[in-house]
Amino acid sequence: MPAMLRTSPPARPWWERPGLDAPHGRLRVAGHDLAPIAAAIGTPCFVYDLDRVVENAERFAAALRGTGIPFRLRFALKANPFPDLLAVLRGIAAPGRPGAVGIDACSPGEVKHALTHGWLPDEISFTGTNLSGRDLDVLLAAGPIRLNLDAVSQVERVGLRAPGRAIGLRVNPGAGAGYHEGLAYAGERPTKFGIWPDRIDDAVTAARRNGLTITSLHFHAGSGWLADGLGAFETALVRAVEIARRLLNAGCPIDELNVGGGLGVPARAEEQAVPLDAYAALLARHVGPLGITVACEPGDYLVKDSAVLLGEVVTVEGRGGTTFVGLDLGWNVNCMYFIYRYAQEIVPVIAPDAARTSTVTVAGNINEAGDVFAQHYPMAPVAEGDLVAILNAGGYEQAMQSTHCLRPPAAAVFLRRAETPVR
Q1: CA distances in angstroms from 383 to 213, 313, 324, 330, listed in the order given
Q2: What value does the mean pLDDT of the chain take?
């Protein structure tokens, strides 16, 4: 008898993970078939896998814990402030317990929101920009939050309102990293963020004049950087450590270096995630010798791949040699490409791993020319009435929805694995 041919199992889509899969050609989140959810809720609709948020947070913390350095992990609230999601983060551990996830806030409203949803003031770190006197009054009344100031004038105004208070400084180390150049928040290109090294002495003088104690240092390299940005992040980190040493040598009792967030999540098969062990090792190597705590405040990294955004294909039409796939949602619901130029995968809910034999532009329903989600995009063929899922939709999308053109926001479903959907 002829030898039986061995066939390899078909390759799984690169984006599959625990909680996001497609058995029998039907896309699922947290073990739930998405087609019935869309039929029941309507589109557009965000569908979350809350267990993925917990997995991401625990994986991040485990990498830091493995280095042996003292650390604090905080969630950047602006990425997603919705109570269902915050509840699972708060549920990881109670305040003061090992593993508890704190909050990074960037507005007085976010500080109030965190307090309302179970965080204590000393679990909250605030870093904002262009703060008004009204902002400062709210922040100073919130209790012992860690208050990072990103301008010398802010130091002066806090000193007038709360002499003797502990503060932190947000600095611009003159180097940054981002998903692309425009998302680097620090570097040679001047940005609105942080005190530059040549103004550090001015900030220290202003603090001392007002009896303020500088106890923390903060920097944020940029947003969405991936494995190929680790070297650029290290450059920013080294410069921030130099500033920390400068402050320590000046007698400032720095007890925390906050390295910000900004770690991205791959959106294409060829993109590589930041290796967390290598990232944590960098922190240990450069911050460890200072003998202080390192703080990290990922937002998008913890929640981005926890959700998909469902939409219906309402138009498939050729225009000037380009095939446009139009969806029943717009940038008011998903601003990732419109504002940030982040890539996202867009797959059919039925047969999501089908061959991508078409090249299309995927566009939304907002009456603006820039309302597109992908251009020159290889996609499986779709027809009007089909459901598609935009992946990596858990961060900054639902949080940034608007009613531009009086288009309504999307619904949301929050799932735990093996549970009934919760609207």
Answers
A1: 62, 7, 11, 19
A2: 93
Q: Are residues 171 and 261 in the same domain?
A: yes
pLDDT above 90: residue 232? yes
Residues near 251 by Cβ (< 8 Å), separated by ≥ 6? none
Please state, in angstroms and rounded to a whole number, the distance separating the CA atoms of residues 31 and 51.
Answer: 11
90, 117 in Cβ contact below 8 A?
yes
**Strand, coil or helix: what is 311?**
strand
Q: Which two tokens stand for residue 192?
A: 């609105």
Q: How far apart are CA 338 and CA 105, in angstroms?
A: 24
Domain-embedded: residue 6: no
Q: What is the CA radius of gyration of the chain?
A: 23
Q: What's the length of the chain? A: 423
Q: Any idea which residue has 């485990």 for tokens?
A: 62
Q: Does 332 lie in the same domain as 410?
A: yes
Is-contact 65 71, C-beta < 8 A?
yes
User: For residue 106, which phi and psi values (nearest 5 degrees)?
Assistant: -130, 10
> pLDDT class for 420, splitting at 50, 70, 90?
low
**Number of structural domains found in the chain:** 2
d(CA 180, CA 189): 14
Q: Which two tokens stand for residue 390?
A: 């935009």
Q: What is the pTM of this model?
A: 0.93
pLDDT at 3 > cutoff 80: no
CA distances (Å), 193 to each of 114, 185, 189, 408, in order? 23, 7, 11, 33
| Range in 19-33, 180-194, 301-315 the model is least confident about | 180-194
| Average pLDDT of span 94-110 | 95
- C-alpha dist (Å) from residue 113 to 73, 231, 365: 18, 35, 32
**Token representation of residue 350:** 């039925």
Residue 231 resides in a domain: yes
> What domain range includes position 25?
20-49+304-415
Task: Give 336's DSSP letter.
Answer: I
For 205-230, b where at least 16 C-beta lie within 10 A, e where not — what string?
Answer: ebbbebebebbbbbbbbbbbbbbebb
Q: Which of 65, 126, 120, 70 is nearest to 96 (CA)?
A: 120
Averaged pLDDT, 205-225: 94
Give residue-wise pLDDT tens across range 134-155: 999 999 999 999 999 999 999 9
Structural domain includes residue 4: no
Say yes or no to pLDDT of 347 above 60.
yes
